[in-house]
Write a structure and sequence with these properties.
By secondary structure, the protein is an alpha+beta fold. It is about 30% helix and about 20% strand. A ten-stranded mixed sheet has the order 4-3-2-1-5-10-9-8-7-6, with helices on both faces. The longest helix has 24 residues. It is globular. The chain starts with 20 loop residues before the first helix and ends in an 11-residue tail after the last helix.
Length: about 240
């Protein structure tokens, strides 16, 4: 007989703007598992619907996350409104970082990716901003920059980079500091780790995530080829 314990992994989604947040998380986890963004139980997605935050559990193979596995948490009171059914699941360790994006930037969704391109970009494509005591990723005149809210083709896209820590929750304070220093950025890279990306809605977050990942991958390849990431003197 056909096994029903595992969800079918698609290379596409059947989502609409009215889809339940649990459905969105489950399908995007399956989609981004195929891209290598959320493999080995790493990475995650969280969605905010007004004051209710939906978060996937920790330590679960992301392509296997079901709608019934999702936690519901109050953003204002920071308390669990609804626990998953059985399995004694734990909330994602990314929760405090997701909450910073929701509270500080009024985000509607956040994606945490462990894509190889994000890791390599933090190792080969960054420079130090002494004023902000932070490393930065810069790229300009690449078409996909236009997919990031508030940016155009001739803008230099800047993404702050923070140092990694032994435990995910320990990133929270530095993420908040840097988030306030870079109000135009919808992403924060974590050195030798991955990236956090957000948007006003899950649809915009998805767009941002796919554009940022394209740009990180392009930058790594450009660096291999000796192509400058920023076109000097041609900003308009």
């Amino acid at each position: 007989s056909k096994m029903t314990s595992q969800p079918t992994t698609h290379h596409y989604t059947t989502l609409t703007s009215s889809s339940d947040p649990r459905t969105v998380i489950s399908q995007l986890m399956q989609l981004y598992y195929t891209t290598g963004w959320v493999s080995g139980t790493g990475g995650g997605i969280s969605i905010r619907d007004n004051n209710t935050v939906y978060i996937a559990p920790s330590g679960v193979h992301k392509e296997r996350v079901r709608e019934s596995d999702i936690f519901e948490i109050s953003l204002d009171e920071d308390c669990v409104l609804k626990k998953p059914e059985g399995d004694n699941l734990k909330i994602s360790a990314c929760k405090p970082l997701f909450f910073h994006a929701f509270r500080e930037r009024n985000a509607g969704a956040v994606i945490h990716s462990h894509a190889l391109s994000t890791l390599l970009a933090t190792m080969t494509c960054i420079e130090k901003n002494e004023q902000n005591q932070c490393h930065e990723f810069h790229i300009s005149q690449v078409e996909m920059i236009k997919g990031i809210k508030g940016h155009g083709f001739y803008d230099t896209l800047v993404v702050p980079v923070i140092e990694n820590t032994a435990h995910e929750h320990e990133l929270a304070d530095e993420m908040l500091r840097v988030m306030r220093l870079y109000p135009k950025s919808y992403a924060i890279l974590v050195k030798r780790h991955g990236v956090y990306i957000w948007g006003d809605s899950w649809e915009q977050c998805k767009t941002h995530a796919e554009c940022y990942h394209y740009l990180f991958e392009a930058a790594v390849e450009m660096r291999k080829l000796g192509v400058p990431l920023v076109v000097e003197g041609q900003d308009k």
